[in-house]
Write a structure and sequence with these properties.
The protein is α+β, with helices and mostly antiparallel strands. The protein has helices spanning about 5-15, 65-70, 80-85, 95-115, 120-130, 130-145, 175-185; strands at about 30-35, 40, 45-50, 75-80, 150-155, 165-170.
Length: about 200
């Protein structure tokens, strides 16, 4: 028995990332026209982060069926990337795929709000390669605090009166540079290295 996504969930996953592959090193459009003026072509897949059935990639037996078929367990990918992430589960963890989804949704929203089309180049791949721990931590915090978008960069020994999310130089020695990279591709805005109060785009 497979816990497949309902049709509405599949469409929602695709729309939330602008019908582009969520792999930051790919970002390929997943839909376009056929030669037939009434037809379209789709190479997009609503992929399960934790597999829909036992034996599948990253299957979690403790997950309830309704959660396994929910949008929180989904990611929109092109067919090639969907095959890739299921063939190498050690390289493509649950945390990494959740981080991909967070990046893809934030990028799509930023493009809508600002009218900016971020070039599909190695910047996305670099973010994933260079700071997977920070991206995974941010993704987890956003899911746990959906109404919060402000965060602080600080040391663990500092005392700061704020409800903002916190990321520590102790854990991420190159934190300022990492945040500036995220800002350069539209995933963070209003970063001020003096006051340490950048803002994450809404999801």
């Amino acid at each position: 028995m497979r816990d497949d996504f309902p049709r509405g969930i599949k469409e929602l996953l695709a729309r939330r990332v602008g019908f582009r592959c969520s792999n930051p090193g790919c970002r390929k459009p997943t839909t376009g026209p056929q030669d037939d003026p009434l037809g379209t072509v789709s190479i997009g897949v609503a992929a399960h982060i934790c597999a829909a059935s036992p034996g599948g990639a990253r299957y979690d037996g403790s997950m309830a069926p309704e959660n396994r078929a929910s949008i929180e367990n989904g990611i929109w990918l092109c067919q090639n990337c969907a095959k890739l992430v299921d063939n190498d589960v050690l390289a493509y963890s649950v945390e990494m795929l959740c981080a991909w989804r967070t990046l893809a949704e934030a990028t799509a929203k930023n493009e809508l709000e600002r009218g900016i089309t971020v070039a599909v180049d190695d910047r996305f791949g670099r973010v994933e390669r260079d700071m997977p721990e920070l991206i995974a931590e941010m993704s987890k915090d956003i899911k746990e605090s959906p109404l919060s978008r402000q965060f602080i960069c600080m040391k663990k020994s500092w005392s700061v009166w704020s409800d903002a999310m916190r990321y520590f130089y102790d854990d991420h020695p190159a934190l300022d540079d990492q945040v500036r990279i995220l800002e350069s591709i539209g995933l963070v805005r209003d970063f001020d290295a003096r006051n340490q109060y950048p803002l994450l785009p809404d999801q």
